[in-house]
Amino acid sequence: MEWLLVAVAVLVASGLMAVVMTSFPRLSTFWGAVGGGAGCAIGLFAVVRVLWSGKVESLRWGWDVPYGSFSLELDPLSGFFAIPILVLSGLAAIYGSRYVAVFWDRKSVGELWFFFNLLVAGMLIVVLARNGMLFLVAWEVMSLAAFFLITFEHEKQEVRDAGKTFLIATHLGTAFLLTMFVLLGAESGSLDFADFANSPSTVSADLLFLLALVGFGTKAGLMPLHVWLPEAYPVAPSYVSAVMSGAMSKLGIYGLLRVLMFLSDVQPWWGWLLIGAGAISGILGILSALGQSDLKRLLAYSSIENIGIISMGMGLGVLGTSSQNPVLMVLGFAGALFHVINHAIFKGLLFLGAGVVFQATETCDLDRLGGLLKRMPWTGSAILIGSVAIAGLPPLNGFASEFVLYRACFNREGLLAALSTSIPCVAVIGSLALIGGLAAFAFVRVFGIAFLGEPRTPHAAGARSPNDRMSLPILLLAAGCIAIGLLSPLVFEKILPVVAQITHYELAMIESPAARASVPLSVVARVGCALFLLAGGLALVRRWLLSGREVAVSGTWGCGYSRSTPRIQYTASSFAQPAIGFFAPFFRTYTKLRAPRGLFPQSASLATENTDLSTDLIYHPLFGAVGRLLGKLRWLQQGRVHMYVLYVGCTILALMIWYVSMELPPADASMSGTVVERSP
Amino acid sequence: MEVATLLPLAVTLIMSPLLLGVINRTKAMVGGRKGPPLLQPYYDLIKLLGKGAVYSRTTTWVFRAGPIVSLAGCVLAATLVPLGGCESLIKFHGDLILLAYLLGLGRLCTVLAALDTGSPFEGMGASREAMFSALAESAFLLGLAALARNTGATSLTQMHAALADGAWSVSGLTLALVTVALLVVFLAENSRIPVDDPNTHLELTMIHEVMVLDHGGPDFAFILYGASIKLWVLGALIINLVLAPSAGESVADLGVALAGMLILAVLVGLIESTMARLRMPRVPQLLVGATALSGLALVLEFGGIGK
Hints:
The complex is a heterodimer of chains A (about 675) and B (about 300).
Chain A: H1 2-20, H2 25-53, E1 57-62, E2 69-74, H3 76-99, H4 109-128, H5 132-150, H6 157-186, H7 193-198, H8 205-220, H9 229-235, H10 238-248, H11 250-262, H12 268-291, H13 295-322, H14 326-361, H15 372-375, H16 377-390, H17 397-409, H18 419-451, H19 458-461, H20 468-486, H21 488-503, H22 507-546, E3 551-554, H23 572-582, E4 588-594, E5 605-611, H24 613-631, H25 641-662, H26 666-678
Helix pairs in contact in A: 1-2, 1-4, 2-3, 2-4, 3-4, 3-10, 3-14, 3-20, 4-5, 5-6, 5-10, 6-8, 6-9, 8-11, 9-10, 9-13, 10-14, 12-13, 12-18, 13-14, 13-18, 14-16, 14-17, 14-20, 14-21, 14-22, 16-18, 16-20, 17-18, 17-20, 17-22, 21-22
Chain B: H1 6-30, H2 40-49, E1 53-56, H3 61-78, H4 95-116, H5 120-151, H6 156-162, H7 167-189, H8 208-211, H9 217-242, H10 250-274, H11 283-303
Helix pairs in contact in B: 1-9, 1-10, 2-9, 3-4, 3-9, 4-5, 5-7, 5-11, 7-9, 7-11, 9-10
């Protein structure tokens, strides 16, 4: 545990050093990146050491904040979420040390490193915190650090807009979390997590679950609480987006799991709700991804899809818990956790890859790219691996976690059990199948349009391989996709202690339900190895067949038309058109068409844009109405100072009258006082 | 390992191109022509394997890896499918998921290889293939879910065995619905009429054929062979469902199943001779229809009406 504090201290101190050095960008970057990398390495060492020993380490200091205590603990669940945070952030720091070079001559990178390292430290404290107050403070530090990272290039209008959306969304989410913690602590009068779990709560568990779902779901990006993701991820520096998508949004999942552990009376409809929200997020998320032509925006929507898959797994787990169905419970939670790890790896990879593309071509618009694989063979190949993995195809890691979820459903205790279990299982099977097919569609589109074919613009044609410090993290993550895919039974086994903790079962008791997935997974892994061997064998056969024969190189067959230009290639929009057309009700497509006119048309153009349905249907009307309503109070604010002083005086007077008239016993008064103080 | 488990794989690898021969022969006969020999697909494969190769300047290693990985995926998919009372080589709980996703991997590789050429026609075919297969996947897995619910089994071999005990007389309605859904998936995934016309001569209307325009020589042989294995594998699922083994007589069962495969090929030939290809915007509706049939089968199972 001490080592973890050292890691946090290194992160914060190096961030401060970076700020101090900010007028020397190289030095500042050095301190920020080395500190970030070292902090993550120390933290990783500490986490792995504790998890390996199988013990739970904790630490508790007093803290002069009401209801607060500096109480940390490293248990399997915390460790499980800390590992992707530390690995991904460490790799992102290495990558960032080179990525930020473009800002050296025009922006101060000190603040970038300070907030990046603070974000990592905040995330680490969030997973370790065992006190509601500490948790919320760390949660806010994390969110605000993320805000400053998102708005790093605040001279651009779209960046400021995205920052605003993020700030509002994250604070609305925190408001729900604050209410939840206050309600949880209302009975025992303490915000320590240990007391939540033991004290019988008088507050309805249903309410607590809903508060947690909204609060944490906003951070994770469950639909329709997702609106900030597709705004914020594209404008942040790529390695920050990688950490936010791969690690920070997972803390929403962490929080939800942690709160589920406090609630004893698990209801089946929670599972139904999680599965429903997950299916909607998954299907609409990947459909929206298909509609985007900006690479980073597309990846943001795909994060929503993956959170949906994770949520469906948690839903199965909750359903299994409530109906005392250990197989469904264990496989549901295990599949969800497995997907958390996998998504961190391939989404981190793809966001880092998007940064490489952006720096090499100055655009993330798929329709302006093309032919990048030839220009950056190693990075491009790694991105191909990430794309296949995120499409959930064997033999890579994405398939392994989706297989566990499928297996939870295709089971005597799932699909074949009573209707209350089998109907949600069918929903999960149908959604996963559709999501799988559409994800393959979406990522074939990304890779095929951006990396294959001919470059569509001179920028794309002039792209070069990135610096080693940027390609190394990407290659490592790609290796992780392959390794986890082929060693999936081993990884699955390491997840079981976490599942045991979430479900309050002994590890020995969940081993036999877990074998339902681990035994097939070992076959799947072997088939994956066979696939590599068979493909290698076929490659040798082809080489043998072609040896001594003529292997010519020529132009692409243009069906008789030999003077084609790169612009004749299929574009990202046209590639997605069959799906956009078929699923038209789920899109708001804005089309700008300048049709060709006359017998000899000079020029024509067509531009389409797919906007977010829930922004258009829910948030714009909602915030518009709120704005109109609150506009009626505008007369309160006239800019005269003495009126404001009067307001303050009146408020204090009203509060005093209220306090005196209530005459509550001090403990209760201060408790409810906390609520009043914080709600404005 | 029993020798019998190698039989389905061996039969698939050896006999799958024959199905194409039978389909083409049927079409020729219905059309009043003599048609190519039944073994023509084999001759084509041998001829292609003996040729050199031409690669486009635009392409990368993805184009060269496409046919290989796609064929490897199809061969491994073939190891998962039982046939005529013989168990499959690899069987485990949930193997049907691996089957669906291995075929998906093969498709992804073909699509990527098509996009690698930079040809607008191939991009067009790739886009259609990706869209239609995304819809076919849910019809396929939901259909298998209905079967799993019906037979109480979660591996293809177990399902096959469970169907042996006169399942059709007990729950014929469910099985009929699933059979129709799987038939639609079979036709769509293998690019047959009414989804795609393998004999069309206009690139604009093609799906699968246009994606492989730039492949030649051994690469094209791999693609053709992989496609015929895929045809066999998905066909075998239908035949396993329709012609349940009588249990015991494994040699006779295998013979019946092989005869069933050939009849299926004749049926495909007849469908292709009597129907036109659907307009492209109609195809998704057909696939959603198949998904609905699978869903209906599941509802029947849930309600206990299918029995």
